[in-house]
Amino acid sequence: MNNPWRFFIVVEALLFILALWQILHNPGLAVLLVLGILCVSYVLKKAHRTSFNNFQLILGIILILIGMMNSPAVWLMLVFGVLFIGLKGVEIAGVDITQRAPWRKKQMIMVETTNAEPKSGRRFKRPWFANERIGTNVYEWDDINIDILSGDTIVDLGNTLLPKDDNIIIIRKGIGRTRILVPLGIAVSLEHSTFYGNVHFEEEKYHLKNESLKIYSNDFDTNTRRLKVLTNTLVGDVEVIRV
After folding, report:
1. What average pLDDT does the segment 2-29 reach?
2. Is 1 helix (H, G, I), strand (E, B) or coil?
3. Which of 116, 163, 192, 234 has the greatest count of CB atoms below 10 A from its CB?
4. What is the phi/psi pair of residue 51, to 5°?
């Protein structure tokens, strides 16, 4: 599967089905699970709760946990979820967990170069549903234009050199968070439209509901290196962060 999160959901769903099968084939666990669900459902439906109802709620949760945790498939779900989300989170954040390792203190890094590629006529395909980070490694700057239905996007400008004059980032998406990491010394303008979401820019926060916003950094008119960011989202936050 092209989307790793789809693979994660499918595996978790299969493990959940296996967990239900294991619980239903163990009468003791099935009884505990049913009693726990009945207790929790009964308490949640009551408009006014007494101290005994709170005890019933806690007891129901404990019974559900006992019934679920005695299934090996539930433990597999938890282990797989922690491993997958942990590794995927490191990948999205671009964090190198070995960066401060002792064997890297005197490490020699060789810079590899490549021949310049023609910019005209390049074609590349982007996924419709994906979390994407641009700028994990050193790269040559080129204006960015992204269209995506859903997913979080991080654009890191710390690993590239913006040329003088205007540089452009255009991001259009349905649902998802957008973060743009901008080095100090670069002027930024942001033009954003959204149905619902927040904007974080120059330590200011704006809450938008079916609105558009256009803001500039203080040095935009005088700085020779400028970045113009144009974003459109249905639902999601946009952050411009100085690094």
Report:
1. 82
2. coil
3. 192
4. -65, -30
